[in-house]
Design brief:
There is one protein chain. This protein is an alpha+beta fold and about 625 residues long. The protein contains 16 helices and 37 strands. Bound molecules: guanosine-5'-triphosphate (GTP) and magnesium ion (MG). The site of magnesium ion (MG) has 5 residues, from helix 1.
Length: about 625
């Protein structure tokens, strides 16, 4: 029999990047006393992974819960809350968790209004029939225009085909930093009561059958030192009890016997062990052996799987290869084909939008994701775990239409730039086959919207930063596969390449510096074929950076000290990935990354180039 579990609400917080999801969750946790009185609470406590803290963004969706005492009824309500990432590359993380909730808080920055990822996450939530609450956040911003943000949000609902119930959303105004909220925008109350009460009134309580056979769809996997693999999901029907024998229906339709060893629910930031959970609860199960996200746990006699979790396909790919540079094995713990292959395929169990394929080469794998950042995070995670490998330049994934015509991914890019740099931005995007859709003035900034092939966007972010002197912001969102746009010019510069293996000297680097910009300083070990800088020459220049000045007497040896090098430009991982040319690889190790030519020997490269040019001129 279907019943309403009035004591529970299940929600996700969704929004464009930086609109304040994790900050709002901090305030919700604080005001429901999840923390002890004397506990020191870090900012954005749900961004618990190192990479999330370092980059100031949420990468993985995470669950928590609060108990809210509703003063109107004096009843306690448990609100299970899922924090989601707002960056477009992690859209798969939003798609995989929406099946656990009955409604969403759609956050919209009061100054920025709806942005590309607002559209993506709202579209997904509406398609799943979820009930939305619109939270106009950052109402304290000086440039806040809540009424405009709200009108634009309403238009977006209509454009995305919201039904009548969804379009008649309640609006809550917030300052997430101070934990204030209100139903009217002029005066905020000193707490989040307006928000909590709206959640209780507007988000439907789980309407479930607790007497039916048990079923749960796995939406997340974790690992615990003592418990092993843990799986998380919402109980769709029935009850699950600790110690019970169940089955798992695999994505391959195979059915295996399993047992619920331990059961947990969320209580604030902690897991609490329980004996039983029932339909409507979000719970953790430990003790299942072979499991991937999207598979169904079920009572023994119930072999029909729940609907699969669907996520959008990847658009960008790169190869991951065994490190065969002369410096391989210096700092990595895991470097063999077997270790890298195992790690990459393991990642696909958790990372829904990622694909890994074997290739004709045993030591190379193709890894596909939603964008450069999606892949960069995987690279950085693996390197911190002690892996060593090489990656190729990211490239887009083409498709073919029914007539065999080549299609390629396109994105909508929204660029906000200080008025002075609008000209160079238009030139940059035009040169990459971008089509200007609209241009809008906002105080001293201009907002440009482009439709542009993803191919044109690869490596563009860095250039945008350079031409706008760091005063440009760009957001992109996948808009679809369309006919191939024709040639897109790639990087304008070439590489400065080390001639021999050794230690870079000031004298050698001084000569190289005359030809371009250096990525390394004196004293750094280099190998033949390693890229040590950038040149605006048409083709690569091989330089002898280890060269020492011939010493004739003491006086001239002192002279070597007189050479002064400019500070080298040290590339970040993201910058190094953007820099890579087609015939280059990025060598990634726990303590370093180096750009290198695929062919290390200059003569071999010369031959390959000659062959290519004869083919081209044929
Ligand atoms: N002025 C103001 N700043 C806010 C408010 N809410 C959040 N911020 C700031 O906005 C920035 C981004 O906040 P986050 O909570 O990380 O945003 P997010 O939506 O979780 O971002 P992602 O998870 O990366 O998509 C932080 O610097 C916050 O301090 C607010 O109400 N007012
Ligand atoms: Mg966040």
């Amino acid at each position: 029999m279907l019943t309403k579990r009035e004591e529970i609400r299940n929600i996700a917080i969704i929004a464009h990047v930086d609109h304040g999801k994790t900050t709002l969750l901090d305030a919700m946790l604080k005001q429901t006393q999840v923390f002890g009185d004397h506990q020191i609470i870090s900012e954005r406590v749900m961004d618990s992974y190192d990479l999330e803290k370092e980059r100031g963004i949420t990468i993985l969706s995470k669950n928590t819960s609060v108990i809210y005492l509703d003063q109107r009824s004096n009843k306690e309500i448990k609100i299970n809350i899922i924090d989601t990432p707002g960056h477009a590359d992690f859209g798969g993380e939003v798609e995989r968790v929406l099946n656990m909730v009955d409604g969403v808080l759609l956050l919209v920055d009061a100054a920025e209004g709806p942005m590309p990822q607002t559209r993506f996450v709202l579209k997904k939530a509406l398609a799943m029939g979820l009930k939305p609450i619109v939270v106009i956040n950052k109402i304290d911003r000086k440039d806040a225009v809540p009424q405009i943000a709200l009108n634009d949000t309403f238009d977006l609902f209509i454009e995305l085909g919201a039904d009548e119930n969804q379009a008649s959303f309640t609006i809550v105004y917030c300052n997430a930093v101070l934990g204030k909220s209100s139903l009217v925008n002029t005066e905020l109350e000193n707490d989040l009561r307006a928000l909590f009460e709206t959640i209780i009134d507007q988000i439907p309580a789980p309407y479930v059958d607790s007497d039916a056979p048990f079923q749960m769809l796995i939406a997340n996997l974790g690992y615990d030192e003592h418990l092993g693999t843990t799986c998380l999901g919402r109980v769709f029907s029935g009850k699950a009890t600790e110690g019970e024998n169940i089955i798992i229906i695999k994505n391959t339709n195979e059915i295996l016997n399993e047992k619920i060893k331990y059961l947990f629910v969320f209580e604030g930031l902690k897991k609490k062990r329980v004996k039983q959970v029932s339909a409507g609860d979000i719970a953790f199960i430990a003790g299942i052996h072979d499991v991937s996200i999207g598979e169904t746990l079920s009572s023994i006699d119930n072999t029909a799987p729940l609907p699969r979790i669907m996520v959008e396909e990847p658009t960008v790919k790169m190869s991951f290869e065994v490190n065969n540079s002369p410096f391989s094995g210096r700092s990595g713990k895991y470097l063999t084909t077997r270790q890298i292959r195992e790690r990459l395929f393991r990642e696909t169990k958790n990372n829904m939008a990622l694909r890994v394929e074997d290739t004709e080469f045993a030591d190379r794998f193709v890894v596909s994701g939603r964008g450069e950042l999606h892949l960069a995070i995987l690279i950085e995670t693996m390197r911190r775990e002690g892996y060593e490998f090489q990656v190729s330049r990211p490239e887009v994934i083409f498709r073919h239409d029914d007539d065999g015509k080549v299609l390629e991914p396109f994105e909508e890019a929204i660029i906000e730039v200080v008025n002075d740099y609008v000209g160079p931005v238009i030139e940059l995007f035009g040169g990459r086959r971008g089509q200007l859709l609209s241009m809008e003035n906002k105080l001293d900034a201009t907002i440009l919207r482009y439709q542009i092939p993803t191919r044109g966007l690869l490596g563009l972010r860095q250039q945008l930063m350079t031409i706008s002197r760091g005063q440009g912001i760009m957001h992109t969102i996948f808009s679809g596969y369309f006919p191939h746009a024709g040639e897109v010019p790639s990087r304008k510069s070439s590489s400065l390449v080390a001639w021999e293996t050794g230690v870079a000297s000031t004298y050698g680097l001084k000569n190289a510096e005359d030809r371009g910009i250096l990525f390394i300083g004196a004293g750094v070990e280099v190998y033949e074929g390693m890229v040590i800088g950038e040149t605006y020459n048409e083709s690569d220049i091989t330089v002898n950076v280890c060269k020492k000045k011939h010493l004739t007497n003491m006086r001239s040896s002192n002279k070597d000290l007189e050479y002064r090098l400019s500070t080298p430009r040290e590339l970040s991982l993201d910058e190094a990935m953007e820099f890579l040319a087609d015939d280059e690889l990025l060598e990634v190790t726990p303590d370093n990354f180096r750009i290198r030519k695929r062919k290390l020997n200059a003569e071999d490269r010369g031959k390959a180039l000659k062959q290519k040019s004869t083919i081209l001129s044929d």
